[in-house]
Amino acid sequence: MATYSRLPGSVALITLQNPPVNALSAAVRQGIVDTVQRALKDPKVTSVVICGQNGKFCGGADIREFAGPMLGPPLVPMIHAIEAVDKPVAAAIEGVALGGGLELALGCHYRIAHSKALLGLPEVTLGLLPGAGGSQRLPRLIGLTAALDLITTGRQHDSSFFSSLHLLCVCSQSISSVCVSGQSLDSRRLSTLPCPCPPDVDSLLDKTMVKVRQRSRGALAPVACVQALMAAASLPYTQGMEKERDLLTTLFNSGQARALQYAFFSQRVVGKWSLPSGASWDNSAARTISKAAVIGLGTMGRGIVVALALTGISVVAVETQEKQLAEASQVVPAMLQREAGRRSLATPPGVISFSSNLQDVCEVELVIEAVFEDMSLKLQVFRHLTSVCRPGTLLCSNTSGLDIDRLAAVTQSPGLVVGMHFFAPAHVMKLLEVVYGPRSSPEAVATAMQLGKRMGKVSVAVGNCPGFVGNRMLKPYLEQANFLLEEGATPQQVDEVLEEFGFPMGVFRMSDLSGLDVGWRIRKEAGLTGPGVESTRTRQGRRYSPLPDQVCEAGRLGQKTGRGWYQYDGPGGRVARSDHWVNIFLEAYRAEHGLVARSIAPEEILERCLYALINEGFNILQDAMAAGPEDIDAIYVFGYGWPRHHGGPMFHAGQVGLGRILERLQHHHHNHPDVPHLKPSTLLRRLVAVGSPPVQKWREFINKERVHSQL
Ligand SMILES: CC(C)(COP(=O)(O)OP(=O)(O)OC[C@H]1O[C@@H](n2cnc3c(N)ncnc32)[C@H](O)[C@@H]1OP(=O)(O)O)[C@@H](O)C(=O)NCCC(=O)NCCSC(=O)CC(=O)CCCCCCCCCCCCC(=O)O
Ligand SMILES: NC(=O)C1=CN([C@@H]2O[C@H](COP(=O)(O)OP(=O)(O)OC[C@H]3O[C@@H](n4cnc5c(N)ncnc54)[C@H](O)[C@@H]3O)[C@@H](O)[C@H]2O)C=CC1
Predict the structure, then answer these.
(1) Catalytic annotation on 123?
(2) Is the peptide bond before 694 cis (omega within 30 degrees of 0)?
(3) Is 103 among the residues known to form the active site?
(4) Which of 29, 33, 159, 592 is the most exposed place for a label (fewest CB within 10 A)?
(5) Final residue of a domain: which of 213, 229, 245?
(6) How many other CB atoms are there within 10 angstroms of residue 111's CB atom?
(7) Terminal CA-to-CA distance of the chain, rounded, Å?
């Protein structure tokens, strides 16, 4: 709702009230319409101020209402009516003015903001465009060039940024006084202004269109945003608004908008974690960490040190290899400086000390181990840590998938051991899997989750199983990609199909970037390859492709060696080019194993890679290794480049139709009975049997089925 009060004198104050962010629900919109009418009718009122309760102006349209029928007064005529009134209306912005909130402010005649307020039009991130006049009013106020950038990226900025664009009349530490009465409002109605455009407007629009198509392949909203701004640049306001409405209607009814809105809420759902034990975010206290240590300063350890230091935590960084230590002590401060600059932090706040002696971690409150993926080495490090650290120190491992319980078992306090699985580069990637074992205490989980949040990560609590959630699902995906090569595909063909779907990189380009030795080491650790293991296409009772092992044996470890599934300009090169060597190698491999190459359709490539991964997601939910589909989807969107406009693998399964996924898995499993990952999961079958409920209902269904022992 919105409340009305008369300030001493002649100012009417309208306060939006809809905690936590005063979103424009039907009730708030009705409140605005009613209170503006009241102010107009009151002869004593000469000006109106609109503000938000609890120091927040408005977080935009109420996203929760998008799923139901539109009730209450529509936003566009409401804002238009405000702009048309003959008493000056000012928006007094504190906290946030986002989306529809900023559009409301653009309909007001004046905008003043607290210096710490955050403003922006993030609709594109929800699969929409600023459809309450924002795409037409903003460029008329700040010019086409700046509006294109803001609307197509959805970026949010503080008041000083918007002051410099003349969007705000006042930006100060206090917004208690506004004096706007007695001046002509003609020039204050943004819909009446021309849209300032640069001389090369067509070229600007063309270039922006190319850029947005490259940046988010297959996403509809950024393209529609550019089209709406083209209309603002070339059409009168009324026609521009018609274009805005048409584009918004198309977007609003698209699966992409539903996917992106689901992704918004998933990110928040995973913060409200709960464990099978009943421990959860609201009943488990977290410790605040101020001193931490990182063990092993390779690829991951360096990034983790930077991520910790950026939050103001003092870090002891330990590395046993002299050369690695010397290199890290040069590289890490530079990485820290660069990242602090990128985040506009004046000076990196945390203090880092480098050491080759594990004894130096004795004073810290939390340790993150990031040594090689080798269980016996990790056990040795954990034994050592438990003997040198103070009692009560949290011991965490960055392992990609090894058993956290085994590590916990060699320590004095198994309850204080959890996995903190970062993603490379650890100071940049948003995802953190927090891995709990049966003995991990709620306090340890809560502390790791909160530490992740402090580092700006999306932290997801996951159970302890090989590969945890993300890598466990990646395994069948990679496996299918390798099988497709055996059957006749090339790395480029597979990558093109996956990139067309929206992944920033196909599976082979991604593997080259991560380093092919990472998986090789894991397969060796699992006894699947290495000296003494026979080079057959069946291992441990199931189909196995030795292709990636043989590529590594040829010294091709990906970008780092300048050769992998592709060739690069040299070690560390970034541009992937197809490599004749790979084609010859694949032909020789197929001949050796009596395989006849066939032409494989893009649909088969996509189905086999994605549905095998999704099927494992259902197995993970069934095993209670993830609390719900949102957890899996957040992991894939934030850690594995799953295109956000497809919501995440589990959401995508719902969009495709669970019946269809089941039918295709059955088909592929029939053709490849020696691939257990293609056998449809029991949970998937159960969901189809009960009529394929929407993804939002799965958590409840799974819990019920578990109680009745159906899973
Ligand atoms: C605001 C934030 C920056 C706050 O961040 P933080 O403090 O970190 O808190 P959070 O945990 O993120 O959030 C707290 C809490 O609030 C909930 N929440 C936040 N924002 C919203 C919101 N806008 N609506 C509802 N709920 C919100 C959040 O979920 C949390 O709750 P919890 O989940 O229970 O924990 C940050 O939250 C943020 O960035 N929020 C999003 C801001 C945003 O994106 N705003 C834009 C919204 S879209 C918009 O405004 C759209 C438009 O302007 C277009 C006009 C729409 C017109 C209507 C549709 C008409 C359709 C016509 C065509 C169809 C016709 C036909 O079919 O025929
Ligand atoms: N590289 C990746 O993309 C990811 C790796 N991981 C995991 O992170 C861990 C580290 O991986 P990377 O950084 O890639 O390995 P890396 O090989 O780049 O670095 C490991 C470092 O640990 C050091 N080290 C070995 N034993 C040590 C000891 N006893 N004490 C101190 N330092 C020691 C090594 O000298 C080396 O510098 C592994 O468990 C890996 O599975 C997790 C996520 C992603």
Answers:
(1) yes
(2) no
(3) yes
(4) 592
(5) 229
(6) 25
(7) 45
CATH code of residue 516: 1.10.1040.10
**8 Å CB contact between 354 and 328:** yes
**Closest ligand (CA of 522):** 2
Examine the domain organization and report whether 667 and 612 are in the same domain. yes
Q: Kindly report the protein residue whose alpha carbon is nearest to atom 10 of ligand 2.
A: 370
- Find the farthest-apart pair of alpha carbons in the chain and give their distance in angstroms, rounded: 93
Return d(Cα 316, Cα 529) in angstroms, integer. Answer: 36
Q: Do 585 and 607 belong together in one domain?
A: no
Question: Of 103, 244, 365, 616, which one is the catalytic site residue?
Answer: 103
Structure-token pair, residue 362: 């004795």
Domain total of the chain: 4
Q: Are residues 553 and 657 in the same domain?
A: no
276 in a structural domain: no
Nearest CA to ligand 2 atom 38: 373
Q: What is the pLDDT of residues 235-261, one digit of tens each?
A: 999 999 999 999 999 999 999 999 999
ipTM score here?
Answer: 0.90
Structural contact between residues 652 and 606, judged by C-beta atoms closer than 8 angstroms: no
In this structure, what CATH number is given to the domain that contains residue 358?
Answer: 3.40.50.720
| Domain limits for position 334 | 291-466
Q: What digits encode the pLDDT tens for the residues 555-605?
A: 999 999 999 999 999 999 999 999 999 999 999 999 999 999 999 999 999
Kindly state the average pLDDT of the residues 126-139.
Answer: 98
Residue after which a domain boundary falls, among 539, 559, 592: 592
CA of 217 to the centre of ligand 2 (A): 33
What is d(CA 336, CA 427) in angstroms, rounded to the nearest whole number?
Answer: 9
Token pair of 599, please?
A: 């032409």
Say whether both 217 and 308 belong to one domain: no
Q: Distance from the CA of 245 to the center of ligand 1, in angstroms?
A: 19
State the closest ligand 2 atom to the C-alpha of 380, by its place in the atom list counted from 1: 29
Q: Kindly list the protein residues whose Cβ atom lies closer than 6 A to any atom of ligand 2.
A: 295-301, 318-321, 324, 370-373, 377, 381, 398-400, 422-424, 514, 518
Same domain assignment for residues 394 and 538? no
User: Which residue among 16, 18, 21 is best mutated to probe the pocket of ligand 1, counting the most ligand atoms within 8 A of its Cβ?
Assistant: 21
